[in-house]
Amino acid sequence: MAGTARSCTACRQAKVGCDARRKPINTPCTRCDKNRIECRFDKNFKRILTRKLTANLTNELHQLRVSQAQAQVQAPAASEGSKSSPLDIQLREPEASPAHASFFFANVTEPLPDFCIGNITIPPKTVIELIQHFGDNYHVCAHFIKPIESLAVFHAVSPLLFWTIILVASQYHEAHCGLYEQLLSPYEELLRPFSNTAIQSIHEIHALLLLCLWPVPNRPEAISPTWNYISLAVGACIRLNLDKAASPNSVEPPRSNPPRYQRRPDEAGIQVQRLTWLACLAITTQEATFLGLLPPFSSRFYQKRSRKAVDELKDYLLPGFTPKFAISQIMCNYNLVLEEVDISSAQLSLVETFNSALDRVWQTYLAEWSIDVDVLLQYAKLNLIATALIQIMVENDTMNSQRHTDIQILIIQGSEAASRLISDMKTMTSEAIANQGKPGNVIPIYYPRFYFGVLFFAAVFMFRAAYMKPSINHDAAIEGLIEVSNIFRLFPHHADLKLGLDTIQHILRYARSEEFLSSPTSSLTTTNRLGASFIWDTLRRTAQFVDDEKPARQSDNEQQASRATHDTNAGSSAIAQNTIYHDTSDITSDVASTLPLPINLDWGDIDLSFPTFDIFGLDAGEHII
């Protein structure tokens, strides 16, 4: 009969064939009869996603383990020994989101020794707290890592990933942040051999990806190795064919105690393999486009593989992953096209084409849209427009009416995307701080560095676009810089954000300078990398002002100190203080005075050492032609 289901509810849920209609009435199908479950036909059937079933089973397992632990603690036999288990700590509740299963459940019956790296020894209780902290605040952005069931096995099988998680989780941990500096040197010794040997384990790829999401601060003499880590991870993914995992039925059963058992990629699980491939796609696309490089997965061959992986993982992906993947695909496509088309007159039409494609992503995935997805969308638009804008302005210095119009359109569209990105990040940060302590909420200080990098890029783009010809409203650009500085100052202990705040303060200090007013984009220090083109050139010009003003400021400070001493002796110290404040508060006073923003106008003297300067992965000297 038309409109009548051929399969029973259980078989439809499992997506398998059903022979109920070929059997007598009121006789269960073969599958339901074998599994001893009710065979029925529900009229309003709605398939439950597999990830929800998995999460429910995981939660039940967690409750079972908790009850077993409580029973052991209350058992009379447990009172015979006075020693308490090093794992006798309160277990956290499962994740609120059903799609994000808990990363780690402490097994209170597992005996654990102290964990050692170099000459550093960490007790099991501290390690468990850091692992749980990673699961609560970092794992949602690193969903490709399989949840941990046994710390002892995980440490023995994957030492690099184990210590990478401990290092990342300790950096901003309230109780264990002091471990971070102690772990850096022994961790670098552990990581060093992987830079000149072939990556053979999927867990080693995971460790490299974590270092790309939350990079280790640079040593003063070193250049950021993030791009090297990405290259190693991508090469290993391709070499291990993580996107072409065999079906579960074709995987050979593992041998008993085989040599280097953990290094067989097929035994990591097909789901984890393909999630790792997609993570490489997302992270490399973000990092490459920020630097102005071609993303490694831009070819149609890899795009086809990635789409197939997404289709096969539909039930395992977190909400928002599919639109993010669609945006990353478009970013790969337009970077490839803009790389091949070097005619400046065609840039605007290409921008409009890809901009429309990005808008269609929003319309298609509106049901699972969120602020973090919109941040990526606005960055994709900004990156697209900025790339085309640089090519138009650098390739041809002659100004005609058509070129003038194209530049004006791109500047307006790019500034709108940058302003929207800043607004999104402000909303996302304020909501996260307001919901601090609630299950599933991640504090912004634990966000991957990408979010803060593109936020800084958006502010600098608006600032530089305000001084292009034709220009936008200067005050709007200054307000964007102030908004970003107020977000950065919320996290004074974040190394990158502190450096970014100091830089924005210097940019604001010299925002009204004639040097910026008369600096077209065609005179950028470097044009081979997009982020360096805008950010590094702006920092270089700011550094020149700092160097040029230092002698004069030193002389002024000496005169003010002498005058203050004289005025103090005369009983007029209040007048001297007002004079000093007036000298340092004339920066964008016409704009800042009308904004209800907690900006501090007393910048002070900040020494920017540009030979070792690094802001969100843009190293000084690395990008100079």
TrEMBL record:
<feature type="region of interest" description="Disordered">
    <location>
        <begin position="547"/>
        <end position="570"/>
    </location>
</feature>
<feature type="compositionally biased region" description="Polar residues">
    <location>
        <begin position="557"/>
        <end position="570"/>
    </location>
</feature>
<keyword id="KW-0472">Membrane</keyword>
<dbReference type="Pfam" id="PF00172">
    <property type="entry name" value="Zn_clus"/>
</dbReference>
<dbReference type="GO" id="GO:0000981">
    <property type="term" value="F:DNA-binding transcription factor activity, RNA polymerase II-specific"/>
</dbReference>
<protein>
    <recommendedName>
        <fullName>Zn(2)-C6 fungal-type domain-containing protein</fullName>
    </recommendedName>
</protein>
<keyword id="KW-0805">Transcription regulation</keyword>
<keyword id="KW-0539">Nucleus</keyword>
<dbReference type="GO" id="GO:0005634">
    <property type="term" value="C:nucleus"/>
</dbReference>
<keyword id="KW-0804">Transcription</keyword>
<feature type="transmembrane region" description="Helical">
    <location>
        <begin position="450"/>
        <end position="467"/>
    </location>
</feature>
<dbReference type="GO" id="GO:0008270">
    <property type="term" value="F:zinc ion binding"/>
</dbReference>
<keyword id="KW-0812">Transmembrane</keyword>
<dbReference type="InterPro" id="IPR036864">
    <property type="entry name" value="Zn2-C6_fun-type_DNA-bd_sf"/>
</dbReference>
<dbReference type="InterPro" id="IPR051089">
    <property type="entry name" value="prtT"/>
</dbReference>
<keyword id="KW-1133">Transmembrane helix</keyword>
<feature type="domain" description="Zn(2)-C6 fungal-type">
    <location>
        <begin position="7"/>
        <end position="41"/>
    </location>
</feature>
<feature type="compositionally biased region" description="Basic and acidic residues">
    <location>
        <begin position="547"/>
        <end position="556"/>
    </location>
</feature>
<dbReference type="GO" id="GO:0000976">
    <property type="term" value="F:transcription cis-regulatory region binding"/>
</dbReference>
<dbReference type="InterPro" id="IPR001138">
    <property type="entry name" value="Zn2Cys6_DnaBD"/>
</dbReference>
<keyword id="KW-0238">DNA-binding</keyword>
